[in-house]
From TrEMBL, chain A:
Domain GST N-terminal: 1-82
Keyword Electron transport listed: no
Domain GST C-terminal span(s) in chain numbering: 89-214
Protein name (record): glutathione transferase
Native source species: Carnegiea gigantea
EC assignment: 2.5.1.18
Family named by the database record: Belongs to the GST superfamily. Phi family.
Pfam families linked to this entry: GST_C, GST_N
Top-level taxon of the source organism: Eukaryota
Record-linked PANTHER family: GLUTATHIONE S-TRANSFERASE F6-RELATED, GLUTATHIONE S-TRANSFERASE RHO
Keyword tags: Transferase
Record field: catalytic activity: RX + glutathione = an S-substituted glutathione + a halide anion + H(+)
TrEMBL record, chain B:
Species whose genome carries this gene: Carnegiea gigantea
GO cellular component: cytoplasm
Pfam family, one: GST_C
The protein's Enzyme Commission number: 2.5.1.18
Descriptive protein name: glutathione transferase
Keywords per UniProt: Transferase
Native organism taxonomy: Eukaryota, Viridiplantae, Streptophyta, Embryophyta, Tracheophyta
Keyword Nucleotide-binding: no
Top-level EC class: transferase
Gene3D superfamilies: 1.20.1050.10, Glutaredoxin
């Protein structure tokens, strides 16, 4: 039975899962959820995610939601396939846990708000709020200063290999690279090298091909 | 001198998340090293070398230094998986462990963003000399109510958030909810019978009772 990923082509959280599926070289079916028509608030979808948000995953009789729970499930369950996206023991596992929380609680809250202003508002024909953009860029700069220090010590956030801690950044970072916020990444040499490296991964290229098809 | 050190404060929400986890895993041998937030100790180089984001808590275990409370609790739950409460369902199956991960993310990304501003405005703003912003409280009370409606339905089907067993998915909720119960917004929990019963269950366990004795924010 094939894995099903329920999601939307413009949802960053959906692409966090799509990226993981490609990294693990898994067969999957993408089931589009038509958010414009409110499909995500429909009982059929709420049975998969009571919070009515994409993505959701079905793997046999396992039904999951929250993109970062799904990526972890895929990384642990299919540990012998594709890219090993996690460390399973010791110090490395602990560092990985830290940098996954950093993405969730330090990077994403700010970067997502910036993506809303600079990317989504444009998509929906709305005007960006210049003051909000300024505020979020300033905050993101401070977060990226910490990343610059970390990435001067190791090639990827949690060590010398690409892991979920890096992958979780891809969708929002991909969007921000198409905006004025790109400069925040480019002006920090280690952050710049890291972002270019992970955005060029074949699994990510395959993921965004799906986005372009939609 | 204990090998395990927690840098934080006994009344801090994120610190108590870690302390509760240590006690649940029957790890009682650790040292709580206070960090003087009022003197901005958390924003200065010695502490920044433990957490470059300048926030408590941090954990030192021998030569390993960690930060982010939910990374620390997961580390403790893994390291001491053969002791105390099975907080990540190591004894369960793949499906159970996956559902624990789902509800841990729900606490991080749905529950916490709604409850945190309420607690901040009510307890922390006055300590910083600011008047609580009622419009922020009101907006988040509305958001939080909607999240709790989903919890009410979930807890109608399961005893704990991830299933039949108490796990980190429940534990992570303890500190902020404890403070909420000291405000008029306690009614949000009390008016939902399943959520209320779940809260009473998880907050009365010995590990959290021990920790919550020191959670006196702004009280004399």
């Amino acid at each position: 039975m094939v894995i099903k990923v329920h999601g939307s082509p413009i949802s960053t959280a959906t692409f966090r899962v799509v990226a993981a599926v490609h990294e693990k070289e898994l067969e999957y079916e993408f089931v589009p959820v038509d958010m414009k028509s409110g499909a995500h608030k429909h009982p059929d979808f709420l049975a998969l995610n009571p919070f009515g948000q994409v993505p959701a995953l079905e793997d046999g009789d396992i039904k999951l939601f929250e993109s970062r729970a799904i990526t972890k499930y895929l990384a642990y369950t299919y540990e012998n396939k594709g890219t090993p996206l996690i460390y399973k023991e010791g110090k490395q596992m602990a560092e990985l846990a830290v940098w996954m929380e950093v993405e969730a609680h330090q990077f994403d809250p700010v970067a997502s708000k910036l993506a809303w202003e600079l990317v989504y508002k444009k998509m929906f024909g709305m005007e960006a709020d210049a003051a909000a953009v300024q505020e979020h860029e300033t905050k993101l700069a401070k977060v990226l200063d910490v990343y610059e220090a970390q990435l001067s010590k190791c090639k990827y956030l949690a060590g010398d290999s690409f892991t979920l801690a890096d992958l979780h950044h891809l969708p929002v970072m991909h969007y921000l690279m198409g905006t004025q916020a790109k400069k925040l990444f480019d002006e920090r040499p280690h952050v710049s090298a890291w972002s270019k490296d992970i955005l060029a991964r074949p699994a990510w290229e395959k993921s965004i091909a799906l986005q372009k098809q939609a | 001198m204990a090998a395990l050190k927690v840098y934080g404060l006994p009344m801090s929400t994120c610190t108590t998340r870690v302390l509760t986890c240590l006690h649940e895993k029957q790890v009682d041998e650790f040292e709580l090293v206070p960090v003087d937030l009022f003197a901005s100790e958390h924003k200065q180089p010695p502490f920044l070398s433990k957490n470059p984001f300048g926030q408590i808590p941090a954990l030192q275990d021998g030569d390993l230094t960690l930060f982010e409370s939910r990374a620390i609790t997961q580390y403790i739950a893994e390291k001491y998986k053969d002791k105390g409460t099975d907080l990540l369902r190591h004894q369960g199956d793949l499906k159970e462990a996956a559902i624990v991960k789902v509800w841990m993310e729900v606490e991080s990304h749905r529950y916490n963003p709604a409850i945190q501003p309420i607690i901040y405005q009510f307890f922390v703003a006055p300590l910083c000399g600011t008047t609580p912003d009622q419009s922020i409280i009101d907006a988040n009370v509305e958001k939080f109510g909607k999240v709790l409606d989903i919890y009410e339905e979930r807890l109608g089907n399961t005893k704990y958030l991830a299933g039949d067993y108490y796990t980190l998915a429940d534990l992570h909720h303890l500190p902020y909810t404890y403070y909420l119960m000291k405000t008029p917004y306690a009614t949000l929990i009390e008016s939902r019978p399943k959520v209320k019963a779940w809260w009473e269950g998880i907050s009365s366990g010995p590990a959290f009772v021990k920790v919550s004795e020191h959670m006196k924010f702004g009280e004399n």
